[in-house]
Amino acid sequence: MIQNPITSDVHFERDGVQHGYLRLPHSRDDSAWGSIPIPITVIKNEDGPTALLSGANHGDEFEGPVALFDLARTLAVPEVSGRVIIVPAMNYPAFRASTRTSPIDGGNLNRSFPGRPDGTITEKIADFFSRTLLPLADVVVDIHSGGKTLAFVPFAASHELGDQEHQARCATAAVAFAAPYTLRMRELDTVGLYDTTAESLGKTFVTTELGGGGSASARTISIARRGVRNVLKHAGILAGPLESAVSIQLDMPGDECFTFADIPGLIEFCIELGAEVRTGDLVARTHDITRTGAAPLEHHAQLDGILAARHFPGLIQSGDCMAVIATLVKGD
Ligand code: CA
Question: Which of 30, 142, 215, 218 has the most C-beta neighbours closer than 10 Å?
């Protein structure tokens, strides 16, 4: 097996706090023997479970970086039983450019897993997580948000998995995160996801979508902070009770949850994120921007539920994901 070129100046077996870098060689015009230093923190206190926490898998999603740079700075060794590995900005080149994908190779990190040690810059990052960091972890939290083109109601999520015990373990950890919503998530395409790689290794994996629009709010940042600490408590790495919050359970039973735009235009959402809808209710309208006098195209809910995600920019292109309706899971 080819060795990954990324080196790290932190030692994963050393007790204490270490702030350092994953150093990814990147030879280029403006830096012949240059590298990309990806910040990493390891906080370890004797034996116990390991949590791997990450943000900015997509570079335009900021709740993860804010919560995790902060956690890396403030988490004290005596608080920890076990180990916490924090990478606040996984796709660091994309994060620095505030873009979803890497400005170096166009790589979408969350479509590049399990990666390649001899691949593109983005594939090398993926490979390092797949073969070096994930095997160290028991519980993995990857904090996502909608980025510049989507906005979500804040949720923590787990996936349907083949193994019931594994699925229950992931679902329980997502509940522990205590976001305002907890979702059993359906992916459009599982190929290349960090999630899929972590789950294939049997890890307890929690992902989130906490907001969107290319920035982070005080509310969504506080949800990220609370959620990460809650999962660390749930894993037994931090002591103390979970900071609980009312969380609404959501499901995505089928592909009818997704609405895609057929024509480009000016999008008008007629309801807010989180609003409850019945089948047939008006969700949005697309206005023709090439002429006046044309009736807008109406988009109606195809099932009962809530508006869980929406296209964020004011203009929409054909093929864009316009809206996601998630169903409310009735009480136990
Ligand atoms: Ca994302």
Answer: 142
